[in-house]
Amino acid sequence: MTHAAPAISVVIPIYNEAENLPDLVTRVGDALARTGKPFELICVDDGSRDASAHILADLAAHTPWLKPRFLIRNYGQTAALQAGFDVAQGEYIVTLDGDLQNDPDDIPALIETMDNSPEIDMISGWRKARQDAALSRKLPSMIANRLISKVTGVRLHDYGCALKVYRREIIERIQLYGELHRFIPTLAAEAGARILEVPVRHHPRTRGTSKYGIDRTFRVALDLLLIKFLMRYLHRPLHAFGGIGLWLLTPGVLSLAWLGALKLMGESIGGRPLLLVAVMLCLMGVQLIAIGVLGEVLIRVYHEPKGRQLYRVRATPRPHTPEAPTGAARHTGPAHG
Ligand code: UDP
Ligand code: MG
User: Fold this and answer.
1) 66, 147, 229, 301: which has the highest count of C-beta atoms within 10 A?
2) pTM of the prediction?
3) 166 and 40 in one domain?
4) Both 214 and 105 in a single domain?
5) What is the mean pLDDT of the chain?
6) Are residues 25 and 109 in the same domain?
7) Are strands 66-70 and 122-127 parallel, antiparallel or unpaired?
8) Which contiguous run of DSSP H or E holds residue 70?
9) Domain boundary among 206, 233, 260
10) Per-residue confidence at 186, pLDDT binned at 50, 70, 90?
């Protein structure tokens, strides 16, 4: 079974998870064997400082379906995931965390759901009963989920759940960078994916430590801004910057005209605060419009190589499912505790 081309690729980013690795590999292997499909497990060591890389290499020596990749330094979870995606061969690509907070035993049911739902391109796990004790983790994540859902229009209860299943095309269509792995559902929806959110189990981390602190909250907020901009204005930056620019430039010019008229009528305008405000408005307005024009030039440069397209067409129409509009979550599947 393991010699056939894998139908399922499981990708797991690993950073200092030495204590979890042996169990992780065994449990993923057991769970995947139950699907009856050939699979591979790609563990990407993200420059771990502990024994993770050695343990991975040892395990791989006698586990034919385990394919380790070793990054030369710690790049972060997003890069580690992309490094896994880049070599994944399966038609289904499954991601989960390396700390066993996600339950590998959930994978077979998710795969079955994918098999039975041709209209779904991606399943996102929902940690309905989340097992992270600290409020300092739950609260920011609660706010983040609400905010991201609202701002991006891709409504999910749980953006932070690492356990996800994708059809291969989705992964091929999106390119991750920065720390955008949290926004894969948004990027996927942009790429036309239909997403199903399914409740999955979640366990407390029993070994190793979390790699993130509270500062993650701010980075997520900035990434959200970026995503929103990319979604709305990537292809028309002049509208974004030029729009604000015009709103500033117009009152600036009107004020200057008004002041000019006063001056002509013999009044002294040198000491009026409005003069300063008007000049500032004009300067800012002109600069923003110029930035918008630069953006337009950049977007042309971006589109010219490789013939990047504005749109994508499908080979066949999507199966008709009236209740699931693009990007919206539809809830079915087993509700685990
Ligand atoms: N991880 C990684 N590189 C990093 C940080 C984390 O590959 O720089 C991996 C980590 O080993 C784990 C997953 O990303 O498999 C999620 O990390 P963690 O469990 O620490 O995040 P949390 O569950 O606390 O949000
Ligand atoms: Mg974790």
Assistant:
1) 66
2) 0.81
3) yes
4) yes
5) 89
6) yes
7) unpaired
8) strand 66-70
9) 233
10) very high
Do 185 and 145 share a structural domain? yes
* DSSP string across 117-163: -TT--EEEEEETT-----HHHHHHHHHHHHHHHHHHS---S-TT---
CA distance 20 to 315: 43
DSSP characters for 198-251? EEE-B----SS--S--TTHHHHHHHHHHHHHHHHHHTT-HIIIIIHHHHHHHHH
Instruction: Assess whether 214 and 247 both reside in one domain.
Output: no
CA of 216, closest atom in ligand 1: 25
Residue 187 CA to ligand 1 center (angstroms) comes to: 21
Q: Which ligand is closest to the CA of 20, given by its number?
A: 1
- Residue 337, pLDDT > 90, answer no
Tokens of 316: 């066949």
Instruction: Decide if pLDDT at 330 tops 60.
Output: no
Determine the 3-state secondary structure of 57 from DSSP: helix
Position 331 scores a pLDDT of 43
Last residue within a domain, chosen from 196, 216, 233: 233
Burial 220-255 (b: 16+ CB within 10 A, else e): beebbeebeeebebeeebbebbbebbeebbeebeeb
Indicate if the pLDDT at residue 140 is higher than 60.
Answer: yes
Top-confidence range, 11-20, 167-176, 232-241? 11-20
How open is the CA angle 132-135-138, to the nearest 5 degrees?
Answer: 60
109 C-alpha to ligand 2 centroid (Å): 21
| Containing structural domain, residue 131 | 8-233
Do 148 and 207 fall into the same domain? yes
Place of tokens 């609260």: 139
Higher-pLDDT residue of 312 and 325 is 312
Average pLDDT over residues 39-45: 97
Q: Which of 115-124, 125-134, 240-249, 283-292 has the lowest mean pLDDT?
A: 125-134
- Stretch 51-62: mean pLDDT: 95
User: Which strand (E) or helix (H) includes residue 196?
Assistant: strand 195-200
Nearest-atom number in ligand 1 for the CA of 47 is 3
Q: How far is the CA of 43 from the centre of ligand 1 (A)?
A: 12
